[in-house]
Task: structure prediction
Amino acid sequence: MSVSVSPADRLVLLNPGPVNVHEEVREAIAAPDSCHREPEAAALINRVRQKAARIGGGDEEYTSVLLAGSGTAALEAVFSSVVPADGRILILDNGHYGERLYRIVSVHEVPHRRLEFGWTNPIDPAEVDRVLAEDPSITHVGLVHHETSTGQINPLREIGEVVARHGRQLAVDAISSLGSERLDVRADHIDWLVGTANKNLEGLPGVSFVVAPRHRLDALENVPARTFYLDLYGHYISQDRKNAPLFTPALQVITSFEKALDLALTEGTAARGARYRALAERVRAGLTERGARFLLPPGHRANSVTNVHLPEGITYDELHDGLKAEGYVVYSTQEQLAGVFRVANMGQLTEADIDGFLAAFDRVVAKLTEVAA
Result:
């Protein structure tokens, strides 16, 4: 197979964020220096808030709150802010990021219950239904839509229907799904949606956000704050009512994110999902031809991440370093999945990028196998 080598100044990022971005997104980061208390900054923030709400399917009844920080900042803002003192949240956990939700509520001493399904197992809506029926103290449910530690896509719509039927609120970590997987805040009964710029929305790191109905955000006035910097209600009131950020935002990153949102809204989630799916299928077909074993069966996999067992006799560090020298960056998994690595296909990638990776994989594996022999 004849494959062109990637330019030396471009790493092909096959990690699940940050991603290779569109040139217009990269250029937008060079916006002029500006003051965050000026009207033009407020106008920028309000435009981006509106577009972020739209990407999740929100209409005029929804808005978003921007936060300077990675997706975990927005997660912590939600999971520390939305549960009242007399409430309780059910954390659905089937991987590293479900465990992260549990750790966040534990740190903030939010009353909670943890329902573990085990890594690589999908979350069972029937079990969620059973727990909610037996435990009226639960007021909120926390779910990771795409559990990137395993590549598992969880049944969001079915769980949303269960939670809504019981009259509870649903908070969703959509950090690795929003923009490419099927998701709609209304149809999926999502009360609190957490997203970030630098994954499927193909922006740069440094800004995250929360999408919610306005009435849910307004109701936070009666929930005592558990944190200072990440107080979701404080950020909402400042951005929405005072027309100014609560603290200093990353304006250049937000400017770049607006361009990424424009591109995402123009392409559409369905089209981006189809683009990602085609690239994922190319990765999986190529690795299957090479005898690779996958962590999950096909029906459980998201369209943007593939978890693969390492070739026999090769360590992750050896594979990673060899591929990086060729211009391709793959990703490790958590220690619970030793012997597995991740290949993501988020961002501005092409079929040539995937073919180049597969060719580099062949060269690296052949070299490492030869050395071991």
About this structure: The chain has twelve helices and 14 strands. Confidence is low (pLDDT under 50) at residues 1-7.
